[in-house]
């Protein structure tokens, strides 16, 4: 292993011994072999520790906090430990495809203005396998920021590669957030440079019953922590904030979670995300939905510059 590898991979894990071998094997199989894999074992209570102790690859390093710090805290520990100029994220139930490291590294080498990359992915769930596609496109800082704020591009942890200096300069990941912490992190990073979207599928998402993304009842709490970090959703981009809130309320209904629905209605009103004007909320929800559908198309993204003036 070189003194300073080309790229550092940060893999937080908590009691996922059954999937870790598959995930780690996908890193070892990369076409780019000059890497370090930093596994942050967040106080697992299964036999993750003994499994990690059995690994002999010198490129794999294990970090253990003294107490459970959550995904954001674990990623921040990985950022502190990273020795490369570029870091890639990896969730413990996902796998990298062959060019997951080399493709972002090439993008950073071509364009010094790019601070982060995202890529297409292969999604594997109980019913089907499909490709979640991204266009081949570089978004300037203001366009990248708005695409993230308005949810025009998909953001998941395993998709993110970022310059280490950028990640540290913005203070890493916001502690206490779930689901949307990846997007919030990139919104802050976008203030420092462009975002590169890579069309090739570089990783694979596997459905997992105990994954964070299946904890539907916690979506409202997650949105509230996101809003606390990004107050523009109850200010200049109030329509977007209301849209995100109503999506969660509809999800509560769809999943029959009436306790969560009651709680989220109360908390969203208190936070200023929704009010009693149901007609206006529905009209604005439809407006945002139509805008997002139109602007998510590759040709529209390519012409994106910033938020619409009437949304400010």
Note down, in words, how this protein is organized.
This protein is of the alpha/beta class and 312 residues long. It has 2 domains: 7-206, Spore Coat Polysaccharide Biosynthesis Protein SpsA, Chain A, CATH 3.90.550; 215-311. It has 12 helices and 10 strands. The chain has helices at 20-28, 48-53, 70-81, 102-110, 141-149, 164-169, 181-190, 219-229, 238-254, 258-271, 278-295, 298-302, and strands spanning 7-13, 35-41, 60-63, 86-89, 94-96, 114-124, 129-132, 137-139, 161-163, 194-206. The longest helix is centred in the last third of the chain and has 18 residues, at 278-295.
Query: Helical residue percent?
Result: 40-55%
Biggest sheet features? 10 strands, mixed
Structural class: alpha/beta
- Quickly give the CATH architecture of the largest domain: Alpha-Beta Complex
How does the overall form come out from the CA principal axes?
globular
CATH class of the largest domain: Alpha Beta
SSE order, one letter for each helix or strand: EHEHEHEEHEEEHEHHEHHHHH
Number of strands: 10
- Which superfamily, in CATH terms, is the homologous superfamily of the largest domain? Spore Coat Polysaccharide Biosynthesis Protein SpsA, Chain A
How large, in whole angstroms, is the Cα Rg? 20 Å
User: Can you tell me the residue ranges where pLDDT is under 50 for at least 5 consecutive residues?
Assistant: none
Distance between the termini: 50 Å
Oligomer: single chain
Number of domains: 2
CATH topology of the largest domain: Spore Coat Polysaccharide Biosynthesis Protein SpsA, Chain A
Proportion of strand residues: 15-25%
Summed over residues and divided by their number, the pLDDT gives a mean of 93
């Amino acid at each position: 292993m070189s003194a300073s590898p080309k790229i550092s991979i940060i893999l937080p894990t908590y009691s996922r011994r059954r999937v870790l071998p598959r995930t780690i094997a996908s890193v070892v199989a990369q076409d780019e072999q000059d890497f370090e894999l930093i596994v942050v074992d967040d106080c697992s209570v299964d036999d993750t520790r003994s499994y990690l102790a059995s690994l002999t690859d010198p490129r794999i390093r294990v970090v253990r906090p003294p107490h459970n710090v959550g995904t954001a805290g674990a990623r921040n520990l990985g950022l502190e430990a990273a020795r490369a100029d570029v870091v890639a994220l990896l969730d413990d139930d996902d796998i990298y495809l062959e060019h997951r490291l080399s493709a972002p590294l090439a993008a950073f080498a071509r364009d010094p203005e790019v601070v982060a990359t995202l890529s297409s992915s292969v999604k594997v769930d109980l019913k089907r396998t499909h490709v979640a596609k991204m266009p081949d496109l570089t978004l300037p800082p203001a366009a990248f920021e708005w695409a993230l704020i308005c949810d025009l591009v998909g953001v998941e942890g395993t998709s993110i590669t970022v310059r280490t200096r950028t990640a540290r300069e913005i203070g890493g990941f916001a502690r206490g957030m779930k689901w949307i912490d990846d997007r919030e992190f990139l919104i802050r990073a976008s203030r420092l440079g462009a975002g590169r979207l890579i069309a090739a599928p570089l990783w694979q998402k596997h459905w997992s019953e105990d994954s964070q993304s299946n904890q539907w009842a916690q979506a409202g709490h997650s949105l509230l922590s996101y809003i606390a970090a990004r107050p523009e959703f109850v200010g200049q981009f109030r329509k977007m904030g209301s849209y995100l809130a109503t999506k969660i309320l509809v999800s509560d209904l769809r999943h029959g979670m009436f306790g969560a629905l009651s709680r989220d209605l109360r908390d969203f009103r208190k936070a200023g995300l929704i009010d009693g004007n149901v007609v206006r909320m529905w009209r604005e929800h439809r407006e945002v939905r139509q805008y997002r559908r139109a602007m998510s198309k590759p040709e529209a993204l390519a012409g994106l510059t910033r938020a619409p003036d009437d949304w400010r």
